[in-house]
Structure formats: structure tokens, C-alpha cells
Write a structure and sequence with these properties.
Elements (H helix, E strand, L loop, with lengths): L12 H22 L6 H8 L3 H4 L6 H25 L6 H13 L2 H12 L7 H26 L3 H22 L3 H9 L10 H17 L1
Helix pairs in contact: 1-2, 1-4, 4-5, 4-6, 4-7, 5-8, 5-10, 6-8, 7-8, 8-10
Amino acid sequence: MTQPASFQRARSPQAKQARETAILEAARSLGRARGIRDVTLTDIATEVGMHKSALLRYFETREQIFLELTAQGWREWSATLRAHLHITRKADPAAVADAFAATLAARPVFCDLLAQAPLNLERNVSLDAVRDFKLVTLNEVALIGTELNRLLGLDEQQVLDLVSTATGMAGALWQMASPGPRLRELYTTDPRLGHAVVEVEPRLRRILTAFLTGTKA
């Protein structure tokens, strides 16, 4: 099988980096449109304009592509959350919970990735890839923890519990809030199933406010 006419193999480090970026952006775009679970390696390769075998020169598996996007998502979310917390002066659990809920709900692809990472993204990649990903998350949690310690006096374990709860619930709630058109129609047309219609941000805010209020108490 020949490569598409538009495809040119990356020869320099700069060209390789550009190709990797293009692959990640294609995967992000497809994940946003379809949901992470339904995007295949072939879909990503087609979107970029290359064959699957060529794409595997840049990433070892489909899961590694999305795990890298999850790591990027952690860095971007952490930076935004910390900016919100930095300008918060009052030691108020509700204000902190609001910052977490708002910044997570604004990132639907990241929420989807948060749900997929422990279920499958970490299970079809090398141990080195998993280690690199975990180190990224640990570093971002530590940076977030500095602001949480300043505001609420949370210790290291409390920070880890809060961030784990926030990101785990964001991933789960996003899945519940995105059931697909057929199920959504069922939930909205049958009054008995109204509880199945989930809004991520307000529910996450309530959960985290209760968590932080209990932790402070």
C-alpha cells in the first residue's frame, strides 16, 4: 500500500515534532466530535492523511496518543485552576469547590479522557509511558496543593483526596451527562427517568463543597 500523495515522512526533529502535534490535534478533534471511546487509530491516521503503519512510527498505540492528550489536559487544567485559586483570598470551601467544578466542566474532552485513562489508556502502553504520565499528574497535584494549603490549610493527603475526587467525579459525571441522542431522548421524555439527566458543573460543585466542608470540620 502506498502513502497518500500529501504524506511526507518527517526527516528532521522539527518535522517529527510537527507531525506528532498534528496527530494529537487530530485525535483531540475526533474525540471532541465522537467521544474518546469511539475513535480508532485508523480514524486518527485518516484525519492526519497518513496510513496507520506510518502513524505507529510516532506513537506506539492509540492509547498512547490519548494518554499524551490526558497529560496535556492535566497541565492546562492545573494552570487554569491555580490561576483561579490564586486570586481567591477567602478561605471558603464553596469558592474552592466552585473553581474546581467550573474549570473541569469547561473541559469536556479532558473529562472524557479522565474517565478513559484508568479504564484503558494506561493498559495498552509501555510502562515508561505510564510512568511519564503519572509523574505529570503528581507534579500538577503538588502545584495545586500549594494553593490549597494557602487557602484551606489542606495537607498532602487531603489535597490528593480532593483532586482525586474532583477528577474522578468529573470523568464519571461527564459520561453520565453524555449518553448519546437516543438515551437522552428517553431520559427527557419519561418523567420517571429525570434523575438520569446530569449537569456536570452544579453536581460536581455540590459534591466538592460537601467534601471540603467535611474535611475542614
